[in-house]
Amino acid sequence: MKNINSPPVKKSKTNMGITGLTNIGNTCFMNSALQCLFNLPEFNDYFLQDKYVKDLRSNNKEIAKQYAKLLKNIRGSGSSNSYYSRGENTQDLKRAIEKVAPIFSGYGQQDSQEFLRCLIDGLHEDLNRIVRKPPYRELQADLSKHDIKHISHDWFNYYKSIDDSVIQDFFRGQLSNKVTCNKCGYESLAFDNFLDISLSFSGRATLLHNVSLEQLIQVFLNKEDQIEEYYCSKYDNSFDDAIYDLVGIVNHSGSLSGGHYTSECMNPYDHRWYRFNDSHVSEVNMDQTQYDTSGSPSPYILFYVKRNLHKN
């Protein structure tokens, strides 16, 4: 597993969408997270090609509709070989999110990770393919009868019967938790789903060269005595079997009570990195970019994509 600057992504004739987002009042936390999502091509094809319409719940909260609308506006801005400082307006999407999460009402500074979680939760609820959820059942995890991957799939399929959406397709992973009784040696195994992981990132580093995703996850696993292993069950692999590429970074500068968010994203069509500072967009050479994670600005959210995702 390693990070590389330009993963092999097939060039598309679709507009590359290198366009800023207007700051409508301390909304840099929103703009920076959205730009990283907008540069995930397989995920966004689902919205650009209107595949989401067939999954849209009748009682949806308009979040998926407004996300698709904004994404299409981004892709319709400019030409396929240029980018503009004119920003697209995010007001309609923000209003849809405010209805389900009043904390984002108004124009106070908010946390970008909290917004991202709220957005993907809202997209999931709007697009959940499960209309009637099955009754609860107690899942068994007997390591004496089945190996850990067999049990992992059993739990994964059960949770998929409850929650199944494009969000789950692209973002869901599993953590296996094993507890061993000190007296009798009995092992209890359970699995928890996750959409993101909070990793510890400290010290001065060049993200693209000195730090790997595997190293960050290993630090996370070492801190959790009960965690046995990490799985991405959709692709039947532990992280040791796959390569993940860093494709987006949300940066924060300032203090916990305030500050400013920007993002750097690798465009999947021209393989170049761009810095998004609200409506302003500029190309950036990531080979020469240093990040001081103890200073300001510092990387706050990292977006990784599994190599050759479209082949699975």
From TrEMBL:
Domain (USP) ranges: 19-307
GO biological processes: protein deubiquitination
GO molecular function: cysteine-type deubiquitinase activity
PANTHER family referenced in this protein's UniProt entry, alphabetically: UBIQUITIN CARBOXYL-TERMINAL HYDROLASE, UBIQUITIN CARBOXYL-TERMINAL HYDROLASE USP2
Name used for this protein in its record: USP domain-containing protein
Organism: Pseudocohnilembus persalinus
